[in-house]
Every structure is written in structure tokens, then in C-alpha cells.
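Now for a specimen:

…
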Amino acid sequence: INSYGLLIGPMGMDGMLYPDFFSWTRPMYPLLISTFSHINSDPIQIAQILSLVAGILAVPIAYFYISRALSSRRAGLLGALLLATSFNHVVWGGFILSDTTGVLFLFITLVLVFHWLNKKFELADWRDIIIGAVFACAVLARYEYIVLALPFIYLFFATSPNPLLRLTTITAAMSMTLA
């Protein structure tokens, strides 16, 4: 991915160009565009489809996360409905932006964390490696999500049977994915 110029596209008909600084501040989205460019040679169309699909997939994953975290199907349905009708999620999902991709990876991270939170794992368990890798993908999609590392650390120390081993594995997986 040496040529980021191919990953710049207009935001709407005759709109402003997708800023090229996003390529190095949010590299996951250009990496996904580049990955799928073998299927379709039009990077603008690929970017729009990726954004649309990520936005759609985030809705059921939001349901799984909220219903699991709050132990309530009703709350999960309400959360998924709120995300599906959210102005920002709907509108920005139609543009060539990394917002919906970041939301998707973050919700996948949250689902995995809450699904495996109270389990006792050994060092280098594959489930913690997946959590670290997916969280790194969320950070690569939206660098602002790195702030969530602090609540995750607290959550693991407060609820996990062996937090140091798990956080070591998750941090190593994040580091390997970010490298």
C-alpha cells in the first residue's frame, strides 16, 4: 500500500475529496479498500460498499453486545434500534469514511470481551489473542478508541480470575497486530 493516492475519493457527487491524511491516521479503512480492490478495480465503489456493509453488520452485533452486557434482550433490541436509526451511523455510513468500520470493530471487541470476561484462561490463549487483534483493528480504524484500553484494564482487574495473564496476552496480540 505505497500509493495512498488511489484511496482518495469524493464525498458525494462533486463533493470534497476524502482527506488523504485519513490514510495514515486511520489505516484500517485504506487497508480494507486495498484488500478488496482485487474484486473490483473501482476503489470509490469498494469504499462505499465497505462502509455500508460495516454499518449494517454493526446493528446485530450491537444487539449481541448490549443484550449480553446488560443481560436483557429488550435492552439489546432497543440498543440495536437506536444504532440503526442513529443519524450519524446512517448518514456517515453512506460516505467514504472510516466511522462505520470503526464502530463495527469496536462492537466486535465488546462482544468478545463480555462473552469471555469471567473465564479463566492461560497465557497466550487464542480467545485473548482474538480480543487483542480485533481491538487493534478498531484502533487502526479509529485511533480515538485507544482511550478504551483504560476501562478494559479496570474491567479485567475487577472481574477476571487472572487479569495479568489475560492483559499480557491481549497486549501482546494488540502489539503484533499494530506492528
